[in-house]
Fold:
Amino acid sequence: MQRPEQTSILRTQLSLAAAWLAGVVIVGAVGFHTIGGGRWSWFECAYFTIITLSTVGYGETLPGFADSTLARGWTLGLIVLGSGTLLYFISTLTAFIVEGDLGGALRRNRMKQALSRLTGHSIVCGAGTTGIHVIEELTYSKLSYAVVDSDEQRLLELADRFGADKFLYVVGDATDDEVLVAAGVERASTVIAALHEDKDNLFVTITASALNPKARIVAKAVEVSARAKLLRAGARGVVSPTMIGGMRLASEAIRPTVVEFLDLML
Structure:
């Protein structure tokens, strides 16, 4: 799967190859112009350089070229050194098209088709420190889901971890209606709002409940005070990781046997 940094590397290689090719064309044209003593125009020199590098074989198009041994020697050197540069440019361009833009387009098309087939699935909004645990649990339970996050690099890393065929995602802002629709919110059974900010989770709750009133919406509350607002907005359940974390710490200290039993049951 093509990563953004890989595309950047290909773009850099393509730029270098293009610069090398342009340099060879310029040097070749200057060489022919100098050898010809100005009797060949710059356009003729550049044209002959390009058809020489491309091995098209139109023949010696420069007037009086056959009379100059130096011009033919320059052409031989240009063919030997310049043809490799042209081939490198073409191969780099092909790699950029296939592995970069084209590969990304095909991947996005496959992802879109897979998302369109989802129904009764869960949508996880946010793949951060909380969302990742939700994703792990859904994967372990073998439930279908789609992840929405604005960090494409993060999603690509998770796709490598959980499997590109199973890990479906949408890159974008989960508070945007179109992004949730792309994740199949109208066909989803559950929407989990696990973003970093309470206001964002509130927006997701409002949007998801409007697009799919039947969906069960579970929201994360960073501040305990946000619980009432999320419930009024349409959330069926609100979870405060900080509160649960504190209760778990206390339980581990006070009643570790009970905690161990409950973990075993889960």
Notes: The mean pLDDT is 85. Strands lie at 122-125, 145-149, 168-171, 190-193, 216-220, 237-239. The CA atoms of residues 31 and 37 lie 10 Å apart.
